[in-house]
Amino acid sequence: MQDLKKKERELMAKEAELNRREQEIKRREEALAKAGVLIEPKNWPPFFPVIHVDISNDIPVHLQRVQYVSFASLLGLVICLFWNILCVTAAWITGNDPRIWFLAVIYFITGCPGAYFLWYRPLYRAMRFTSGTIYDAFTRKDSAFSYGWFFLFYFFHIAFCIYAAVSPPFFYVGRSLAGIFQSIDEIGRHAGVGIMYFMGFALFVLESLLSIWVFQIVYRFFRGKGSEAQMRPDAASRAPPF
Known about the structure:
This protein is an all-alpha fold. Helix content is 74%, strand content 0%. The longest helix is centred in the first third of the chain and has 33 residues, at 2-34. Its main location: membrane.
């Protein structure tokens, strides 16, 4: 009987300790939120988390569609630059300057993380600011700064995608990017490589069009022309497209 009472007291003590720790963690999270520090655990990709992506919980419902498409734009850039490496590798193997391969690799290893930190994260934070307690923790000036940072670097992102889709014969005859000019040139030299370059051209065109759409929608919302009613047609009844 005494053993049971002793175990019961131990369990109650452990429960009280757990409750105390939970309250302490909650208090620290609230303090960090008030200080402008967001806790963002890495959760994507699921098999090897390196970034934080939780659009369904972090972003207001009426903005989730735009955020999902901007995330698709980020993934699209990764696909474009990776396919570009494959194209340039094939061109190198068939006799082109090996330096074009190093340029393609540089585009990939700088472009992918650069896109995430320079324009995707600022947009994610700006969209997140508009939701509940997060918005209370930051000023409108901070939100405007995030939008401004996004617009600046997303403009350069769009310019790069258009440049890559064209790939004018300037830098190493433009062969480090799979664009239309190089596709036409390569198809005459080696049909297989030319087809790969044309596929790269198509990817860069799609990425450019998608990015321009995202830029327009976000700018419309930022300028106030896209009210919540305009930004969320049937938002309550429509699930995000991804």
